[in-house]
Amino acid sequence: MAMNIGIAKKDREAIAKHLSKLLADTYSLYLKTHSFHWNVTGLQFNSLHAMFETQYNELWLAADEVAERIRTLDVFAPGSYSQFGKLSAIKEESGVPDWKDMVGQLVEGHEIVAHTARETIKVADKAGDEGTADMVTGRLKEHEKTAWMLRSLLK
């Protein structure tokens, strides 16, 4: 049965392309945050360990929401590390930086995802896809707030 939700197939595919990048950024940031949760050390251990756990749980749920929106648009969502690696702008961390560098990398990551979200909203708005624009606006606000909270630790 053909999809008829009021958004042309080419527009759904363009939106899904941007959502796929958002998904890859979200998942990559999730993985980095989870790793930092496991490996943080120092005087800030307790507070950062708990904060990172809250953040990676939120990112995990967000990834599912973004992937399901891609499927709602009748496009398959990327779901492998190689696909995410090609799509994501989040830099991989293979070592274990100190807590300040962890926080700095997470600020940068949330800001990258905020940029990706803004671009996705533009494409969704142009196509009249209020559902995607609304969902991604919520994601944008969450990433901006998290970046602010993390950045505050470094002052």
- Rounded mean pLDDT is 97
- Which superfamily, in CATH terms, is the homologous superfamily? Ferritin, core subunit, four-helix bundle
Radius of gyration: 16 Å
* Proportion in helices: over 70%
Q: Please identify the structural class as seen in this structure.
A: mainly alpha
Number of domains: 1
Reading the helices and strands in chain order gives HHHHH
Report the biggest beta sheet as strand number plus sense, adding barrel if it closes: none
Total number of helices:
5
Distance between the termini: 56 Å
Protein name: Ferritin
Domain Ferritin/DPS: 17-154
Pfam family, one: Ferritin
InterPro entries: DPS_DNA-bd, DPS_DNA-bd_CS, Ferritin-like, Ferritin-like_SF, Ferritin_DPS_dom
What does this structure look like?
The chain is an all-alpha fold and 155 residues long. It has a single domain, classed as Ferritin (Up-down Bundle). The chain is 76% helix and 0% strand. It is built from five helices and no strands. Helix 1 packs antiparallel against helix 4 (99-127) and helix 4 packs antiparallel against helix 5 (130-152).
Task: Map the helices and strands.
Blueprint: H1 9-39, H2 45-72, H3 81-87, H4 99-127, H5 130-152
Helix pairs in contact: 1-2, 1-3, 1-4, 2-5, 4-5
InterPro entries: DPS_DNA-bd, DPS_DNA-bd_CS, Ferritin-like, Ferritin-like_SF, Ferritin_DPS_dom
Family: Belongs to the Dps family.
Domain Ferritin/DPS: 17-154
Short description:
This protein is mostly helical. The chain has five helices and no strands.
